[in-house]
Amino acid sequence: MTDNSFVRTESHPDLPPPxxxxxxxxxxxxxxxxxxxxxxxxxxxxxxxxxxVPPFLEWAIFSADLSGSTYQDxxxxxACWAMVRVRFDQFMYGFFPTTERWRVDIGFLLLFATAIPxxxxxxxGKKYLAIFVxxxxxxxxxxxxxxxxxxxxxxTAQWGGLMLTLVLATVTIVVSLPLGILFALGRRxxxxxxxxxxxxxxxxxxxxxxxxxxxxxxxMLPLFLPPGTNFDKILRTLIVMALFAAAYMAEVVxxxxxxxxxxxxxxxxxxGLSYWKTMGLIILPQALKIVIPGIVNTFIALFKDTTxxxxxxxxxxxxxxxxxxxHKNWLGTSTEGYVFAAAVYWIFxxxxxxxxxxxxxxxxxxxxx
Length: 369
What we know:
Blueprint: H1 23-31, H2 36-62, H3 82-93, H4 101-115, H5 126-146, H6 161-187, H7 192-206, H8 210-220, H9 233-259, H10 262-270, H11 275-290, H12 292-305, H13 317-325, H14 334-363
Helix pairs in contact: 3-6, 3-13, 4-5, 6-7, 6-9, 6-12, 6-13, 7-9, 8-9, 9-11, 9-12, 12-14, 13-14
């Protein structure tokens, strides 16, 4: 009897998975069409994008006018970006003298050239860069922007536009974070007097709108000073905005401190560490890592709140755009101005948000499945 059975001696290669379980189709099935409700939302969203995006692109790009010296020169029916082109320097520098604007460029280029490497892994000499950014650069920037030592003095009343917005936001952010940490530690202090002072400060500033604080710092504060005493308006604004942001930052940091298990404190005490070493080496690094989203959220809100300085007569980026659209040559271009302002604010805020996400992932020590 002949055995006609066949036994394969070589393994057969695995067949590829079905197309619907791989690549873009798999992603769409899981995220866009996983149920009838998600399918409805996806189709509705696509329909809305179809109705909104093409007309916007037609208005903003394809039918837009880039040339012209007045609004009457924009005749295509689309956006009149000629206003932005003509007033661009004013939007960036405010009323800073034209011949001295190179100082502003150097100041911010120097900041970006030294601060950005601090955010990149593997860059050598970060300690010296940090010392320069936080200890030396503020004096260099003040010298460049205000003048002195051979440079023409530029009064702060001439500061404006995006330059003023960045100055207000940067200084307030840098000052409010360490102040907020100190107030958060003070609120959790075991010393009753320190704790009550910090609680009173935090609750007072958090209970008052920023626009009221700005008005008080600009108009009311000089009334309580000795006769002949006068502070620069931008300096007063920086002080009140930093104190206002520090109160909110303190509550964000306090949330991180409360999330640290009690065992961490007990372990530090068992090692014989002092209070400040415990906070600086063990507690604060963990607490600040936990509240990175809250800290960045406060920074973003603070960056956008700089627009409120209009109430005290400072022309920041948004304010100077608004004033430009009310000029007789550019009446009717308010939409273009607001769209341009929104795009610039979005770039800065989105950049801060993405960096915070990157920092969270870098410092993440949790165990995920």
